[in-house]
Amino acid sequence: MKRKRGGVVFVLHLHLPLLLASAVRDERLLLRRLVSVSLSLSLETETETETEHISCLLAVLPLLLRSRCPAVAALAARLVGAASLRLNHAIAADAAILTALLNSMRPSFLSALLDLSVSSFARDRLRHHHRALPRLLFLLSQHPKPSSSLLRLILLLINTSTTHFLGTGTHNLSPHLLQIALPLLSKFHNSSSLSYIQTLFHDLSQTIFRISAALPLPHPQFTSHQLSSYIFGTKQSDFQRFLLAFWEKSPLLIKKGSNSNKCSHQINSLLTSSFNSPTHTIIDSILQNSLTCPATVSDDLDLNQVFNEIKGSLGSSLIYNQDIRILKTDSQSHCKEQHFPFIDKWKKAFQNGYSIALKGMQFRSDQIAPFSLAFSELFGLPSIGVNLYLSPSGAQGLARHYDDHCVFVWQIRGCKCWKILKDPKPVMPRLYESIDNTFASQTSGEIEIILQEGDILYIPRGYFHEARTVINSTSPSLHLTFAIEVERPFEWEGFVHVALHCWSRKLNQKSDNSYLLSNSEFPNITHTLLLHISIKLISDQSAAFWKLCMVASNFKMDNKKSTFDHLINIINEESNFIMAFNWIKLVVEKREEESILCMRWLRNLYDDIYYDNLLETLEKYVVVACNGKSEEALADFVQFKSWFCKDVVYEDACACFLSLLKKYREARRQYMKGMLSLHRRY
């Protein structure tokens, strides 16, 4: 029978006192019927008045949820779920209701909490409730087959949280959660192809990644100094000698044991311990248990944003080209690669002369990750990539090529013959710029090096090289490459940009008139932008700016300050307002955002919003501001540049550079910790 709308309000007024009395006296039958009526009425409420009266029922909900009558408590939980859309904020703000729901954790209570968690406010309230996550994790640990509602609720609370909460609010719970979650992940991965199981698998992968990313790194088993001693020699001058004589200049073979010391055996055994099994067994295990490592934008330092970018890929299988390549090169051509994109049939390909190239080993192996970290600290970089290469006897994987980064090749198993052309590219390549291997056919003369187990080969960027497993070798070749990739912020160009940022920030903080431009129409940001662009244009034409800035290296170098002074002199002499202004005008008119992508990282230096959308900022503060006033702008720019080149402080730039490096390292290592934990599930 239909009720009139006014009847709903009347019944609510009438039975609220009865609810209170029944709850106190525990009149179970009456209480059950009254809560049932409340539930049906809450589903019918439409007007604000009716909603207001339903909210009155919330006052007795803690009593009802704690009722000794299971049916009453279950109906009260359903009432919470039914009212969660309209009264979400009111219910979530009531600590007594949340506590009552968390105390019991019956299935109906879990469903009510899930319904309540549709809003970010409710999720925040639950996350910060002192009993919520400990209670949920305790329940999860007590059930070998946890309910879907319980698991979904935990995953929802973790996967919608911020990195700050993960680093503080779950710190004590994280190891316990991982201990429970990792076996579940492996179970879901192997159990079913049903869509809801796959959804749970990906959500659980994201939870494990998020929790692990917030945990501290384990204490390193060796330092960058010990790694340097093992490779280059025990004296600090040995590494300096390598930098002066070979770095970005010439290849170098480092024979196993040539720099023996007391930690040599420890370092070598740590690396080779990952590969003690037969080679086929090792690769089979790695490929079966490896997941894709989703690519991220290198300048995204906000892990919350990174989470959102990669969450759909976490837990997915290996992706050809992104994670792995299976390929071979004909012995006659040297330059034509054949690919075999069927990862599950790698053994067949391997028997037919194909090599396996697996990227991102620093994310897949707890034994290899410390080497990546030590190399990054040795060279003052945020991260170092590690690839694995397995080739059958007599086979060549990659064709003759050069890299846009320096590499250290560490031979783990078997022997490999490397051929390196004596003449590198005329101009040293820059990271991420297009590769042109045609120059290789125009040169003559090569160096041939046989790498045996434990040997290390350094190849500078720009040197053409190829490698083939020794034909008469009885075992396949397995080696790792450590890629020393110099990104724009960590070139000398990047350091000069950092120096300009430090100086301009100090300029903006000055209250005196020591830096007073003649034309006050142009804000300092106009000249700062023009000088940033001018530095970029000068750098594009000078390889001196592309070299690795080792200001953050653990080793002292005497020539860092002199290198900086030399580059500042170049900027002072060659900075050109007209060239920079015309370049900016062209980029703005044609909307060529790709031309300024290499400067996107500047937003990690500046706290303001100007560098978030560099194209719009250039248009507003340079093109529009200087339109029709080029002579005045030119005069001010020359003065601004002169002040910068005269007064910039190297030590200030060093401090700012180290702070920037710390941000990059933190972001990269959070990603590393998350991926290592996902691979640790096996």
From TrEMBL:
Record has Nucleus as a keyword: yes
Cofactor: Fe(2+)
Enzyme superclass (EC): oxidoreductase
Cofactor binding mode and count: Binds 1 Fe(2+) ion per subunit.
Gene Ontology CC entries for this record: nucleolus
Segment forming the signal sequence: 1-21
Subcellular location: Nucleus
JmjC domain residues: 357-497
EC number: 1.14.11.-
Keywords, alphabetical: Dioxygenase, Iron, Metal-binding, Nucleus, Oxidoreductase, Signal, Transcription, Transcription regulation
One family name in Pfam for this protein: JmjC_2
GO MF terms held by the record: histone H3K36 demethylase activity; histone H3K4 demethylase activity; iron ion binding
Annotated family: Belongs to the ROX family.
The protein's role, per its UniProt record: Oxygenase that can act as both a histone lysine demethylase and a ribosomal histidine hydroxylase.
Name under which the protein is recorded: Bifunctional lysine-specific demethylase and histidyl-hydroxylase
